[in-house]
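Email to the structure team, subject: FAM20 C-terminal domain-containing protein model.

Hi all, the expression group asked for a predicted structure before they design truncation constructs. Nothing fancy, just the tokens so they can compare against earlier work. One-line instruction: predict FAM20 C-terminal domain-containing protein, return tokens.
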Amino acid sequence: DTRQESAGSPSPEDLAYLATIVDGVSWSPRLEASCPRPFSAGEVDAWRRRTADMDVVRVEDGCGRMQNRLVTFRDSSRACARYRLNTDQIQGEVFSYYLARLLNVSHIPPTALARVDSRSPRWRSVHLQLSLAQWADSKLVVLTKFIDGMAPAHIPPEFRGEGEDALPGHAVTGLGSKSRAELCQLLQWSDLIVFDYLTANLDRVINNMFNRQWNDQMMASPAHNLEQRADGALVFLDNESGLFHGYRLLDKYAGFHRSLLAALCVFRPATVDAVKRLQASRSVGRDLHELFVREEPELHEQLAPLPEKNIKVLQQRLEDVYNQIVACEKVYAG
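Reply from the structure team: attached below.
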């Protein structure tokens, strides 16, 4: 049963089935409950508590480029450590993570700050490996839970064009004919598009879009810095360009960001609630800082907060997402 729309109006059966998928401009609770949710709040808290002061027993190449390293803790669990000379890349990674937490977007692996100190009990046994990595004492690194067994993730056809019909514009013929796995992908992508718009991340889908001018197959290639677990859950990797570097380059990439947001008209209910709350309160900067201080009580003073000018850009981009939601509600709600 592909639930295709027949000539003329959709049948009552089609509409009944569609109601199990979308409700106005929101994905239905029934659909969301059937989709994978990668990193629960409980899992995040457990990982952070367990690894907070755990000794590091190995530091080796891995986790991408430059001075990033794969670290192994005493209990054999592993984390990716992001080491950067530029503080704004550490800020971008960390504040993007906490913004995702504010939005209830659960696709970034558990993340925490750590301070390098080769003489401390935590790092002492790997001091030679730290020296080989050219890590300086007192630098902050971002530790992210290592996720094994992931595969590349592709951009859904709905988001490969620019300025095409927004979801759920051709609802019955589009959403009604999709498999559960395809619907779960679209549900997760709705969060990805909102999140990457807010942070102006240019190292994920924007990377594919920008490079299409040289390679017309880029949108069919795996999405940059996006992986998929075996259960279908998407994992958003490498968010360091968010909120800082991406904001500096808005003039260059704004059109790509806008076209992706314009292609989206169905959202996860909790994301809509968070966007509307933060838009009404105008408090995203304060809320983000308070969450950061609460979650990083030992180290928050060692990382400069999000500058006021960046907060203003973030608040404006929240307003853009809010306006897109409201515009979609006027067309599709009810």
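The mean pLDDT is 90. The first strand starts at residue 22 and ends at 23. Ping us if the truncation boundaries need rechecking.
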